[in-house]
Write a structure and sequence with these properties.
The chain is an alpha+beta fold and 141 residues long. 22% of the residues lie in helices and 28% in strands. It has a 4-stranded antiparallel beta sheet with strand order 3-4-2-5, with helices on one face. The protein has a two-stranded antiparallel ribbon with strand order 1-6.
Length: 141
């Protein structure tokens, strides 16, 4: 199966924002239902290149005696712009504040996030998978 570079231009820069949210595991389905309309807004941003939500797995090999935290969600958000744009443009959009106001009551500890700079197309690849597992184009929930 071929592996494709996301961009063929090394001048392309961008960032990945990785957000960790901790909520009560029993509230995950309700939280995600509240989150979906906001996801539908952010995926319309032209600068967004990737967005996916992950849930901590039940089993962690480095800590086999402790179950995974099913209330730990991680958002991986990738953008074609820099940190300044993220902080001073995207983060100031009204729907970001609305999302935080609608969901922060679910957070059982403070949300954390880190921003990573993209290192270039030589180190960026995407395997599209088969039609059963991949989602091509911009999807809507």
């Amino acid at each position: 199966m071929p592996v494709y570079a996301l961009k063929n231009n090394d001048d392309f820069k961008g960032i990945s924002v990785q957000v960790d949210i901790y909520i009560d595991p029993k509230d995950v389905p309700e939280y995600l239902e509240i989150f979906k309309p906001f996801l539908n807004l952010i995926i319309q941003e032209a600068e967004l290149t990737y967005f996916e939500v992950f849930q901590e797995a039940d089993f962690q090999p480095e800590q086999p005696d402790f179950p995974g935290d099913r209330g730990h969600l991680r958002f991986i958000e990738c953008f074609s712009r820099d940190t300044d744009w993220f902080l001073n443009t995207l983060r100031l959009k009204p729907y970001i504040k609305e999302y935080e106001e609608a969901t922060d009551k679910y957070w059982v500890k403070p949300r954390t996030w880190l921003i990573y700079d993209r290192l270039g197309s030589e180190l960026t690849h995407w395997n599209p998978g088969d039609d059963k597992t991949s989602r091509r184009g911009r999807s809507r929930l």
